[in-house]
Amino acid sequence: MLFNSIDFAIFIPIVFILYWFTISKNLKFQNLLIIIASYTFYGWWDWRFLFLIAFSTLIDYSVGVSLSKEKSIAKRKLLLWLSIIVNLGFLGFFKYYNFFLDNFISAFSFFGKEINASSLNIILPVGISFYTFQTLSYTIDVYKRKLEPTKDLIAFSAFVCFFPQLVAGPIERATHLLPQFYNKRVFNYHKAVDGMRQILWGLFKKIVIADNCAEYANEIFNNSAEYSGSTLLLGAFFFTFQIYGDFSGYSDIAIGTSRLFGFDLMKNFAFPYFSRDIAEFWRRWHISLSTWFRDYLYIPLGGSRGGTWMKIRNTFIIFLVSGFWHGANWTFIIWGALNALYFLPLLLLGKNRQNLGVAAENKIFPSIKEIFQIGFTFTLTVLAWVFFRAENVTHAFNYLIGIFDYSLFQKPEIIPLRVIITILILLLIEWMQRERSHGLEFTVDKKLSSKTLRWTVYILLIIAIFAFGGSQQEFIYFQF
């Protein structure tokens, strides 16, 4: 079930009414309704994979209960590894089996050995990378005694399958989200209204920005050999905003929907295209994944505490794993490696935490230095996204070679002014709102407290969604 579908527009009011008007006084029934709604939401794609979520839930719940009773260090480690192997085993099979098999066969063919093995026609379960990491955070935190294991199977099941963020995040920590299922939830009008604003902003980013950009990005990437360097650069630019509008739009809808039901999810995007260096970009892009890898992989490996070699090693590990998490293709691994190369000079020079605030803080316009920094960081990001979007490594390199051709200075063959104008509107609104949680967070600013102004913005955005929305596209991150 897509957030930008009629199905969801019917589904969410029904769940909302049942949740707040029929069972609001019974916490267990509310959690049970969340499970039913979440399994319905997920089963809309393929009901068979509901058994996979249920099995992962039971495994990690049982491991957590066992860890609470077990004192032996060796047995506790065994239980932890049971959870890790089961969860990553499912992820590895469904997502990476054919990738490893194909590369294994290619490696032997390179040395003159032929191996006969057939790839499997495996369907990737939607969102498996997201809920797998979410349940792993629970087991690891219980093992480290950062979290008391739950004995409430209904609350834990609701935590694992919570439908707003089930298939594309944010990847919530058990320490943050799970306790919210234990506490009585009271309807908060102001929180719900702000949630609706964030949903509207997310729909605008998805339907008007991402879906329109997808049309031109797909046309240019799929026929890249036919276009000039300037058009190829424009195609990379469109994909840059397609993936941002698509993924951050999903996160906005997920966070806003959660607030309708009394839950707070972590912020997943913080206006990343206004970053002044790559380190800042990664603190603002897909925050839930970046911090997950930081806390559960980078820091356990030693983080930045060791010598130069350890810093380089850990940086490459974290970015390569992040790239591989996104998909079973060498393009994602190279994308990760390229971002590691971008990041390393800042880390080695001790400048990776020099831009912790927002650009032009408490000002309307950025300084000349900040304009240069934002422009340079954005350019590096656009070029890296080419690998993310390309069909394979050869396609990516040919695309980049095509950009840096003399034809880069020609007029592009494709100039969709309407799409470019909507991107500029997006950037303008987000620049003005960059110190807030999302693009339509008005309540904290007295200047924007006018009801007339707020409703003018809402109506204009709704008109834009219906009048200028692109053809419906699935969310990009569903494939991850």
Features:
single chain; 480 residues; mainly alpha; 2 domains; 17 helices; globular
Describe the structure.
The two termini are 16 Å apart. Helix 3 crosses helix 4, helix 4 (73-110) packs antiparallel against helix 5 and helix 8 packs parallel to helix 17 (451-468). This protein has two domains: 6-187, no CATH class; 190-276 and 355-479, no CATH class. It has helices at 6-21, 27-43, 50-69, 73-110, 128-143, 153-161, 174-177, 189-222, 229-260, 278-284, 287-298, 308-326, 330-348, 368-389, 393-403, 417-432, 451-468. It has 17 helices and no strands. With 480 residues, the chain is mainly α. The relative contact order is 0.11. Helix content is 65%, strand content 0%.
- In sequence order, what are the helices and strands, one letter per element? HHHHHHHHHHHHHHHHH
Mean of residue pLDDT values: 90
**Form type:** globular
Q: What is the radius of gyration?
A: 23 Å
Give the number of domains: 2
Beta fraction: under 5%
Largest sheet: none
Q: How far apart are the termini? A: 16 Å
SS class: mainly alpha
Helix content: 55-70%
* Uncertain runs: none
Number of helices: 17
What is the strand tally?
Answer: 0
